[in-house]
Specification:
This protein has five helices and two strands; from the N terminus they run H-H-H-H-E-E-H. By secondary structure, the chain is mainly α. A two-stranded antiparallel ribbon has the order 1-2. Strand 1 and strand 2 form a beta hairpin. The chain is elongated.
């Protein structure tokens, strides 16, 4: 079953995992050491992130390292861009209004 990217990143632990592996690839055991949870619990979060293609596994010997998939996150960022442009326009209008009010005083 394919997971929805929004459901995946809605969970704070999964966002924290993404933040960790954005810096460097990690094994599930290493990730579990960073959280107050078991390796099995981390593995369930990894399974969701992998189903959304936000992370990708790389077997190295007997270990599996998980890498951040920047391409998939870029798709999400591109979707957000349409909203970002809207709120940036509104903030710029607010800045101009506040500057005008300040100059009138």
């Amino acid at each position: 079953m394919k997971q929805d990217i929004f459901q995946a990143i809605a969970d704070p632990t999964r966002r924290a995992i993404l933040t960790l592996i954005a810096i460097q690839a990690l094994t599930p055991n290493t990730m579990a050491e960073k959280f107050d949870m078991s390796r099995q619990a981390v593995s369930k979060h990894i399974k969701v992130l992998q189903a959304c293609e936000l992370i990708r596994p790389e077997p190295v010997g007997r270990e599996i390292y998980y890498h951040f998939n920047a391409k998939k996150m870029l798709e999400f960022d591109n979707w957000l861009a349409q909203f970002r442009q809207n709120w940036e326009t509104q903030f710029n209008q607010l800045d101009q209004l506040l500057t005008t009010i300040k100059e009138q005083k």
